[in-house]
Amino acid sequence: MDDDFFSTIKEFRETKPSHILIIKAFKEIKPSSQNWCSYVIIFLLSAYTAASISFAKETVELVSVIAHHLIEIQLAIFGCIFAVYSILLAFLSDGYMKRLARIKEKDKTSMLKNSITYYESVLFLYFISIISSGALIVLTDFLPFDASLTSNLMLDNVLSAIGLLVYLLYCFRVIYEVKSTIYNTIVLFRASIAYRFIDFLEEESNSESKL
């Protein structure tokens, strides 16, 4: 049997705990030299939104509103990505999987493994963002609109701004990850079309050789 197939079997037979998969999922959105510009934009947007909400009089109400809006977006995107992931797995042909298993990337892992792992990571990232938004909605629904963390108003504003900044930074970054998800989907489907036409050419050349 092909060594690449043995390697792929080993990659997919390995079952890791969910917390390990979640830790690996965060690597997909870590800052790097390639995405620093998008991180700066997302940080500025998150910081402005967090400051505007935290220093407003109706902070709790505004947090509840933005959490409701974000969870609707997150659920919609999560559903789309899960559908794409399911369709991708269902329509991977035998020949296409063999070719992806033979393609090794920089980390010496097969392209098949990296592609499947990427979609799994994105699903985990959205799961965490949905849980975060849901928890924030429940919390703000039970809090009175004039609730405070401490007896110091300025300290309250600063603490809420920091908490909101972390939450919004994560949510906006995960939403922005849709760009990479679309790109990876396009790469896989374009490669699938290319390999199918390679098979067509091989079939035609074989049929012509028999004539």
Task: Report what the structure shows.
There is one protein chain. By secondary structure, this protein is mainly α. It contains eight helices and no strands. Helices cover 81% and strands 0% of the residues. The model has no long low-confidence stretch (mean pLDDT 85). The protein is elongated, with a radius of gyration of 23 Å. Helix 2 packs across helix 6, helix 4 runs antiparallel to helix 6 and helix 6 (111-142) packs antiparallel against helix 7 (153-176). The chain starts with a helix and ends with a helix.
- The SSE order reads HHHHHHHH
Class from secondary-structure proportions: mainly alpha
Gyration radius, in Å? 23 Å
What would the principal axes of the Cα set say about the shape? elongated
Number of strands: 0
* Average predicted confidence as pLDDT: 85
State the helical fraction.
over 70%
Q: Outline the low-pLDDT stretches.
A: none
Number of separate helices: 8
Distance between the termini: 33 Å
- Report the biggest beta sheet as strand number plus sense, adding barrel if it closes: none
User: What percent of residues are in strands?
Assistant: under 5%
